[in-house]
Input
Amino acid sequence: MRFEAIRKVHPEVTSLEGDDIALDIKGNVITIDEGMVAVHVDIMMREHKEAEAIAKQIRDHKDKLANIIVYIEEITRSVEHPIEKHQEEVLDESGLSKEPPEFIEVIDVEAYTETIIDRPALGFDGNDLARQDMMSAIQASTILGVFIHNWKLADNTWAMINVNELREAHALAILAKGKILGA
Output
């Protein structure tokens, strides 16, 4: 580190004899400005310590992220994939529906902003803002690779849902709005 500091103060120095005799390319002795060299050594030491601290923070964050990834993988393995299961039950070999789809029921046409998409044990809001939030979460999932979300439901409770459930709820909300507006 001292040699690097000497080179910053005296770029013409190409080598050192011992710790104190600086030489240029022709072997001429260069007088070292020890005060400036000491300042550069201090700066380099501080930068080195800061770099070590940042590296430690990165390692700590990587460890935390690894734990989160393991947790998500465990949850993902334990979560049923309702869309795939539903598709197996209602689609024929060509991918066409075996029976007409059942849409959600809308009680009051004027109150479509209160539409709730019913799923087994889950009720998603189906209003305009909720659909925008669903789409944003779906896009973020694609970009970040996060497929499990903690989602606030229509009854103001929170539930862990997977992105496929969110996609399905979003699609059903769009269909419900179309059904309401077309009524």
About this structure: The first strand starts at residue 15 and ends at 17. The longest helix spans residues 34-78. Residues 91 and 116 are 25 Å apart (CA to CA).
